[in-house]
Amino acid sequence: MTKTTVFTGAATAIITPLDENGVDYEKFGRLIDWQIESGINALVVAGTTGEGSTLTDEEHRAVLHYAVQRADGRVPIIAGTGSNDTAYAVDLSRYACGIGCDALLVVTPYYNKATQKGLIKMYTEIADVSTKPLILYNVPSRTGCNLEPSTYAALAEHPNIVGIKEANGNISKIVETFALVGDKLDIYSGNDDQIVPMMAMGGKGVISVLSNLMPAETAALCKKALDGDIAGAAKLQCEYLSLINALFCEVNPISVKAAMAAMGWCKNYVRMPLTPMEEEHEKKLLDLMRGHGLL
């Protein structure tokens, strides 16, 4: 069974520029262009970093449609279509396929969670209706729901399920997953501080928050790893670690919104229940950004 590789390298989990009036499409368009011009390999739209969970249904669909039109085939657009309501995830996934998104990123169901059997049933139902490849997204620290390696093995048999964004943070489980499905599913790091360890195991790249502000640098790090220069990639991983940690010192996307606002890409605005970054954390983040020449 030959499966489609959606991308290799770095995909940006792109922010959605928001203000009190809604989505700022002028800023969003400029940001998409800059990301692509900087050499990013794909864009994930309306995911966690894009505040998909607090976009209205109308906004969510409009943001996906706009991104497809703006990118105009220059890089793959991966639509965040996961939900804790499977029927809604199915409907949104159908929409994303219909407007020309290149793939879907589907998070595990948050709050109501699911058994492993339930996860298999949910992902199968979404994959069955999708006309585009589907990437599973595992981030138990946010959802309270974890995909087990054996569940990946079962889901790997579906022709439309092609990859994993793995953000469980447990390197032993990640190695077990590679052992079980590394030849059947493309595996991407979902944590910026684990890009090189996962790529050294054979991972195809990262779905990144860091690349919002450092697209060229994140893509270059991944290229080193893909080219076999693990030592060179590891050096960059360590060089960026303090900045990565600062980007996650408060729940994502609070910190990255503060960073991107400082760079002029958006307003420092997140939707409730998120609130802007604490002043002491923001000062540390901006100092680190200056050290990397970003401000």
3D architecture notes:
45% of the residues lie in helices and 14% in strands. With 295 residues, the chain is α/β, with parallel strands linked by helices. The protein has an eight-stranded parallel barrel with strand order 1-4-5-6-7-8-9-10, surrounded by four helices. It has a two-stranded antiparallel sheet with strand order 2-3. A hairpin with a 2-residue loop joins β2 and β3 (22-23). α11 packs antiparallel against α13 and α12 packs across α13 (279-291). The longest helix is centred in the first third of the chain and has 15 residues, at 57-71. The radius of gyration is 18 Å and the shape is globular. The mean pLDDT is 97.
What structural category do the secondary elements indicate? alpha/beta
The number of distinct β-strands equals 10
In order across it, which strands form the biggest sheet? Answer: 1-4-5-6-7-8-9-10
β-sheet strand percentage: 5-15%
Largest β-sheet summary: 8 strands, parallel, barrel
Mean pLDDT: 97
Number of contiguous helices: 13
Helix content: 40-55%
- Name the overall outline: globular
Low-confidence stretches: none
Please report the distance between the alpha carbons of the first and last residues.
Answer: 48 Å
